[in-house]
Amino acid sequence: xxxxxxxxxxxxxxxxxxxxxxxxxxxxxxxxxxxxxxxxxxxxxxxxxxxxxxxxxxxxxxxxxxxxxxxxxxxxxxxxxxxxxxxxxxxxxxxxxxxxxxxxxxxxxxxxxxxxxxxxxxxxxxxxxxxxxxxxxxxxxxxxx
Length: 145
Prior knowledge:
The protein is of the alpha+beta class. The chain is built from 3 helices and 7 strands.
């Protein structure tokens, strides 16, 4: 193999390594933001919730599509008491440089009034980079058996 061929192989390998590292960094970033969002809900921190959730974001939960900021915050923060949560099994789908989907399994101890809520959910969150910041534009949650 000539020098050009070797250089091309090295360059391709470096590109693949850089892309994998970039996706790994993005997964860590978005997972940390997802944890910050959960903490904001747990601590009833509306300012952080609104910073992380886009004004036009929607949430699909219990078979309904809702405005995430209005209905989502009202439901999750004002009606639900989150005792603890753990996010596991993160998977990232990088759609573009400005859009990514993060899926996690959430193990949560929560109540609404006297009712204990399902403890294990699959959550799929679409994040978009707007004005240099990652924000939630869509999230879907459903209980796991």
